[in-house]
Amino acid sequence: MLAVGNLHVSYGSIVALRGVSLQVGEGEIVAVIGPNGAGKSTLLLTIAGIVRAKQGSIEFAGGSVTGAAPERLVSSGLSLVPEGRHIFGSLTVAENIALGATTRSDRAAIAADTERVLDLFPVLRERLRQRAGKLSGGEQQMLAIARALLAKPRLLLLDEPSLGLAPLVVKQVYDSIEELRRGGVTILIVEQSVGRALKVADRTYVLNSGAVTISGRSAELQGTAAFDTAYFGAMSGARAP
Amino acid sequence: MIVLQNAIDAISLGAIYALAALGIGLIFSIMRLINFAHGELIMVGGFMLYGLAGQPYIVMALAAILVVSILALGMERLAFRPLRRANPATLLIASFAVSYLVQHIVLITFGARPMGVDFMAQLGESVDIGGLRVPRLQIATIIVTLALMGGLALFFRRSRVGVQMRAAAEDFTMARLVGVRANLVFAVAFAISGVLASIVSLYLVTQTGSVSYKMGVSMVLIAFVASVIGGMGSLTGAALGGFLVGIVSVSLQAYLPVDMRPYRDAFVFLLFIAFLLWRPQGLLVRRADRERV
Question: How far apart, in Å, are the Cα atoms of B148 and each of A107, B15, B101?
Answer without folding.
Answer: 29, 11, 29
